[in-house]
Amino acid sequence: MHYLVTGGAGYIGSHICLRLTELGHGVTVLDDFSSGHRWAVTGHEVIEADLRDLEQLRRLLSGCDFDGVFHFAAKSLVGESGKKPVYYFQNNVSGTANLLEVALEQGWRDCVFSSTAAVYGNPTTETIAETQPLKPINVYGQTKRVMEELLSAVHAQGNCNAACLRYFNAAGAAPEQGLGEWHEPETHLIPNILRRAAGDDLALTIFGDDYATPDGTCIRDYIHVLDLADAHIKAMELLHQQGGFYRLNLGNGRGYSVREVLGACEQAVGVPIAHTVGARRPGDPARLVADATQAGEVLDWQPIRDLQAIVESAWAWEQQRRAMAQV
Ligand code: UDP
Description:
about 325 residues; UDP-galactose 4-epimerase, domain 1; three-stranded mixed beta sheet; 10 helices; about 40% helix
């Protein structure tokens, strides 16, 4: 098979490209490199384009023969999304509409779409199943919900098959293959802890320890990016075999508190990691944990890497990332 991977230079997209090529598939990455990395697409065919430019997309993609599209290209910073809603809707929603228009013209029917647990907003149950109402509390989550609706409407017309995969907290890396997470600025918990542990001059803060959780810190469901990659590939195989439209949570189904994550990182690093406790971060629900039963059944998929494996891979990657940053 040969697939188009939009946003293939980003964190999750680059790990999907890796797994696809390991399985012998061809990959063409489409990316605008606004946040993705050129080093992350080494060895793949690359098209540099902005999804907002429909005529450019048509020019670059017409005549291409793809067996399906993995669609990751999107803006994804929650804080920024609130400040720039028009920009987020243009990039994420209009960009997806343009991509679909070209895909339909070219006859690429199967699309695996990168969605997010942010479509749910504040959960009302211990674990979140796909039946939870969609009430995103930030613009980023709103754009992803609309992107899902767009795919659903096109599917209802009989023109495409799609799997919307709602990730919980993607984490970990593939250090043996030279891939991992690299955002500037970095806002995520695990890379922030490990950057601090490696000696970065950043103030590591636990955002609130007065939540109604056992140790007072927020609970999240961390899932290894390579487990996510396997689920994406199984989802594409499902679309090829039986078509359809799916919305599936991808998580471990197990929650860890910020303090537990810090403890796992200290174990991986081998020393205590200096930190302080600060105020709550606005917009953080106390607990977000997936009920990923449906993905397990529909995709015949189970995540196989636990929190310790996640932080160990992230720590090995952090050493590589620092070496790359110094060149
Ligand atoms: N967090 C923290 N300190 C940090 C970064 C994150 O305490 O420097 C907390 C954050 O409040 C949340 C959890 O860690 O409860 C995971 O945050 P992250 O930004 O990694 O992912 P999110 O759940 O927001 O998608």
